[in-house]
Amino acid sequence: MIDWDEKLERIMLTQMIRDDPALLKELGESIKRIKESYDAQVRYFYRLKCARRERALDCLRQRILQRISIKRTGGV
């Protein structure tokens, strides 16, 4: 099914760009800023996820070492 509102919006945007070529440059710069912001957020969340994973692994290592230590000393 055709989305006439979207189609009309595209036609109007195309006409606005034809009337004012500087608008295309502004749109390009806006898209570039949005992409950079998105990329920065992805990098931040990836680092956060990696940090959480490292903390979880450290915690798991500590628990394993603690259990080994308890077994060696004859504890429960």
Overall description:
The protein has 76 residues and is mainly alpha-helical. It has one domain (4-73). 91% of the residues lie in helices and 0% in strands. It has 2 helices and no strands. The longest helix is centred in the middle third of the chain and has 53 residues, at 21-73. The mean pLDDT is 86.
Number of strands: 0
Strand content: under 5%
**Shape, principal axes of CA atoms:** rod-shaped
What is the element string, with H for helices and E for strands? Answer: HH
Largest sheet: none
Quote the average pLDDT: 86
Helix count, DSSP H or I runs of 4 or more residues: 2
Rg computed from alpha carbons, rounded to a whole number of angstroms = 28 Å
Summarize the topology:
Layout: H1 4-19, H2 21-73
Brief write-up:
The protein has 76 residues and is an all-alpha fold.
Provide tags for this entry.
76 residues, mainly alpha, 2 helices, 91% helix
